[in-house]
User: Fold ATP-binding cassette, sub-family B (MDR/TAP), member 11a from Oreochromis niloticus.
Amino acid sequence: SSWIKIGNNEQDKKKKENALSIGYFQLFRFATWKDIVMMVVGSVCALVHGAASPLMLLVYGMMTNTFVDYEREVQELKDPNKTCNNNTIYWVNGTVYETDENTTLYCGVDIEAQMTLFAYYYVGIGFGVLIVSYFQIAFWVTAAAKQTQRIRKTYFRKVMRMEIGWFDCNSVGELNTRISDDINKINSAIADQVSIFIERISTFIFGFMVGFIGGWKLTLVVIAVSPLIGIGAGLMAMAVARLTGRELKAYAKAGAVADEVLSSIRTVAAFGGEEKEAERYDRNLVEAQNWGVKRGTIIGVFQGYLWCIIFLCYGLAFWYGSKLVIDTKEMTAGTLIQVFFGVLMAAMNLGQASPCLEAFASGRAAAKSIFETIDREPEIDCLSEEGHKLDKVKGDIEFHNITFYYPSRPDVKILDNLSMQIRAGETTAFVGPSGSGKSTTVQLIQRFYDPKEGTVTLDGHDIRTLNIQWLRSLIGIVEQEPVLFATTIAENIRFGRPGVTMEDIIQAAKEANAYNFIMELPQKFETMVGEGGGQMSGGQKQRIAIARALIRNPKILLLDMATSALDNESEAVVQEALDNVRTGRTTISIAHRLSTIRNADVIIGFEHGQAVERGTHSDLLGKQGVYFTLVTLQSQGQTNTTSEDFDLKAGGFSRGSRRSSKSSLRLRSWSQLSNDFVPDQRNDAEEHVEPAPVARILKYNQQEWPYMLLGSLGAAVNGSVNPVYAILFSQILGTFAIQDLNEQRKQINGICVLFCVVAVASFISQFLQGYSFAKSGELLTRRLRKVGFQAMLKQEIGWFDNPINSPGALTTRLATDASMVQGATGSQIGMIVNSVTSIGVSFIIAFYFSWKLTLVILCFLPLIGLSGVFQAKMLTGFANEDKKAMEEAGQVSSEALANIRTIAGLAKESSFVDSYEQKLESPYKSAKKKANIYGLCFGFAQCVIFMAYAASFRYGGFLVRAEGLQYMFVFRVISAVVISGTALGRASSFTPDYAKAKTAAAQFFKLLDRVPKISISQSDGEKWENFRGEIHFLNCKFTYPTRPDTQVLKGLRVSVKPGQTLAFVGSSGCGKSTSVQLLERFYDPDEGQVVIDGVPSHSVNVPFLRSQIGIVSQEPVLFDCSIAENIQYGDNTRSVSMEEIIEASKKAYLHDFVMTLPDKYETQVGAQGSQLSRGQKQRIAIARAIVRNPKILLLDEATSALDTESEKTVQTALDEARKGRTCIVIAHRLSTIQTADIIAVMSHGAVIEQGTHDKLMAKRGAYYKLVTTGAPIS
Assistant:
């Protein structure tokens, strides 16, 4: 009992965990009574359908008995002294013939009449099956479609009602997946799978019933053996799962190497480490390969074990069964067959029912998150009718002691006891550094969130008591990045207020300064703005958004950074529009540009979530507080910079910091939109790759031909096992008609021994097939992975910039594509050989014993085959069509979720819900139509086999009578052909893997065949002896391949003599680092050239060039190995000795620090060097560059990320390293470059002035300004 208790405890724990999960029947909570009736009827039909196969066995049993009786009669009547009279056999002299056991013998079997009767039975069962299986499928699928439709609608409506805080905590991408995938999972858990499950379980039950009715002893014997099969299957599943886990783990190591290398590809390329990395990757692949082989072997062993047990089981059953038939006469031959097949069928169906359980489980899991959302009550319900609507609104807003946290980040206090007043009709400007809570106050006014403490009041009423839809209808908002919907301009403006006329729209457009540009467009107001307004420029989008806000005729206008994202020209236009419409409205404006704030009535300064000062422009300047700093920073910027437009960049006022600091709550949806949509479109283009020719895949697998041969041999033996089984099975039936009992026993024992032989042979061949193909397949996978990885490392750097080739995507490709290709070689060949031998041997047997009967059955084979294909096709085909149909609705939902704030601000939730529901109609209709087609096909597929039996046995009976064919041959031919038919079906079911493998291979070969734009082979290009390091940039123009619209270098001209130091200075994005990348030949310039020692760079040998260059970059990339190995990475052409390492690290001021570490040079630096400080990493990078002993040293902002102390050390180390080398420095602090021989000041991709420090200071140009203001440059 204690054991039971423990079990209960475990169950209790499980119960607690699963208390959250959904019970299976809860999935049907959206069913109406009609659906329930349909499902009940469908289930009854499924039960009946399940009983059909066992019923057929009864007929089969009776038929066997008829055949046996007839055969006996024929054998007895061969004796000329016997005749048949009154259905009993008499001697010719008239006495009754008695057998040894003193029984009389029955005769006069009219075999054809009997067979005709059985044929009718079969046809009847067939028609019954056709009808019930149609209803079973059609009803369940229709009911499921209705329920899914209801779940979709309910879910979307509920999501649209959620408060904004909830969206902060749930990513839009995730919600989109839930709407599509999770609901599809629920659908598959409540649709046809259920009926098929019921049908299989019913076959299981009825099969055993038929068995027990026929002969309980034999049934029990067979059942006693079946656990062996079950245990085998269970162990196999467990072992495979564990080994797969091991294999993945082993591969994960190699994957980590690949990921590390691909993410730091620039460093690998700069130091020429490609070969070394490929070797390192390959070393890690060995382990994964070994586990893979083990897995294949174990699958082979278990499969062999299963078949072996099954055949031994056959042998036992027939041996024991024949004892019962012959010795004790408890059973007839027919009941023996009926029992044996009944139990077999039951076991098979139980096995086939298990995949359905998986669908149910995943449906329940998916339902959990969906139903949780459906049951959640929103904290701020935007569609509710509750709350007051005031008759008259002045527009006074007050904040009383408000404290607020974002629900997604409850630990950061955004507003801290904030109190302020905003008077009606005035323009109030909010200023302050990023993250001080300005935008948050705007969102509280819209009641996107409720404050933790305190109240927001409108005209003295707490806004929580007001009706939300009404409150939001008073407010017009223009955001920094306005969201437009993918429809026409007019529609976008109309979103502002329902039921406006075209005149109103035009009026609003005029007020927003948008009318003129709209009228210039070809389709005027009917112009489509594109996904997210992508067809419009920033200024145009802004003005459409302003028009949309104005058409509401709002009492309160919120301008959140409305002009910050614009260039000067459009800003002036938009600003003018805003100034016109502010009059007479309560306006709140958040801005960073002074020009936009100066003329506000009241300015409120924010800091750390509090309103610290308030007053007019001149008041606040006198106070010398937040506003004052802001103004001085800006005006200083204006005198000192050449650019006329200067955001409040300094002092943390830059847009960028604000974006990051708020985890960009407003922009979050955007970045997700772009992330979600861009790759999809690209992938579609990628997907249509011609499948690779199999010959080419096999070529890669050439070396493993002995394994392939062995495997194919095994497969051939496996294929011929089934037909052999048909021979043995019919032979046993034949023995029952033998008169001589001893002869009969001898034959039966012989056959059972043969069964055992077949069992052993099957075990060996299965093992052979499993092991050989696993070995050849894993070797192929490893080879492909290595080759693929090398191909990746050969590509030019520009290729890696493409998001399709991000490190993540590439590592996945190595992991999955390579292992998929395996599916096209070994196992596939095995499958083909197996099926071909199976079919071949079956037909040989069939034609040999009776060609006429074989031809009759052959007529049905295409139908049986078709029905198999049908079923496979149905399932996949429907899935794809459904996806297509759901896409439109998916677009609506993803647009709505991505722009939820805008929709909430416009109070347009319900119109999106309506549009979504309308888009769901067509998929729903087609789903209902498909239910019927699917039902018909399913029914047809199910009943074909019954019809085939009817025809072939009827004809068989005729042949037995007319041509004296032995009845056991009838059974032999029929079972051989049917078995080969199922083998065919099995072969076709393997094709999807095969197709996948071919496309995966094609993707792979595309990668292998791609010719890199910049070849890194040792042979291409020039090399020369004494490399001096003289560099000229001649009129270089360059754009990054991934951003073709922005030119980074616009005619760069600058040159360095050997041994000189050239320093680049300039603001960020002016092309300083780009020039360095051109020198390394990561990219080649579009026009112009880089000349090195008088040779144009594009004709120089790349490994040779890179071996002359050492680079120390701003964020040095270290590899996950020891310090010594990282320094050795500097020169991958030879192995660097320890002395050299120490020498280099002394030069880099690193040695002393390393000696303080416990493991000294063997210290592991961690992934990306995470165990070290930045200064330490920098110095390792310098040592690495020194070991290379380069002629050219590139320092890309090498000290910018350091604190002062480490900077001094690193700077000294760098000055040491520069001696006697050509050096290019990209500087961040001007103090570090004053000693340079040439200083080149860059702006917008060209050099605007160059010379020594003193010359440039005397010139009093851009450089002079930079030095005197001490402004940080980048």
Observations:
- Residues 1-19, 636-687 have pLDDT under 50 and may be disordered.
- Residues 397-623 form a domain with the Rossmann fold fold (CATH 3.40.50.300).
- The radius of gyration is 41 Å.
- The first helix runs from residue 2 to 18.
